Amino acid sequence: MKTTRDCEHCDEPMPLTARSHARYCKPACRAAAHRAARTIPDELTSRPRWIRHTARKVPLTVGGSVASSTDPSTWSPYRDVVRSAAGAGLGFVLDGDGVVCLDLDHALDEQGVPLPWAQNIVDAAAGTWVEVSRSGDGLHIWGVGRLPHGRRITVGGGGSVELYADGRYIAVTGRTFGDTPRRLVVVQHVIDALL
User: Fold this and answer.
1) Predicted local distance difference test score (pLDDT) of residue 96
2) 88-103 confidence digits (pLDDT tens)
3) Which residues of the chain have pLDDT under 50?
């Protein structure tokens, strides 16, 4: 059983001298996390569909109980989730209202440059917000569109893309990729091309 806590920003173990309510291992991580929070588009932060999650991505309420991506009573407003010390990070619940996420697995090389297959998708979705995933080598493309159900597809060049619009939560890092804008735009053409 794990008895140590991890920093919410860098996932490193918290110092032994850290207070019980501390969320970050050092001031630099706290500052970076607060900068990241300001990069999340208003289209997401204005919806009360936020949860916390454990390091293993188990969804949690702001109080630390188990949450559900299909039970709105376990979700919270963004302001409450960022104030909570529960778990290791935060996530946004997709509930079929038009917000979609294209999850590109292993999309970046060791230098953080998109692999060719991923760059094609990022280019096609130009104008919408893209963040680096928790793994550091994936991308989340956030946008507006419709999708009857989640899908995992393999694209040319060895890439893997998961498309979600409902009944899931996405772990949000707030680490904007490149200079992508802080807004969500329609990405239906990208979804249609991938499907």
Assistant:
1) 93
2) 999 999 999 999 999 9
3) 1
Q: Is 131 a catalytic residue?
A: no
pLDDT in tens, 11-20: 788 888 888 8
Contact between 96 and 40 (Cβ < 8 Å): no
Backbone angles phi, psi at 78, to 5 degrees: -55, -45
Residue 8 designated active-site: no
pLDDT given at position 1: 45
> Alpha helices of the chain — where are they, by DSSP H?
27-37, 42-45, 78-83, 116-124, 188-194
Report yes or no on whether pTM surpasses 0.90.
no
- Which one is catalytic: 8, 43, 95, 103? 103
Q: From CA 89, how far away is CA 136, in angstroms rounded?
A: 14
Strand order in the sheet with 159-164: 130-132, 139-144, 99-105, 159-164, 151-155
Residue 97 annotated as catalytic: no
Structure tokens at 56: 């293993």
Chain mean position to CA 91: 6
Choose, from 6, 9, 140, 166, the residue flagged as catalytic.
140
Catalytic residue among 11, 80, 137, 162: 162
Token pair for residue 106? 């292993």
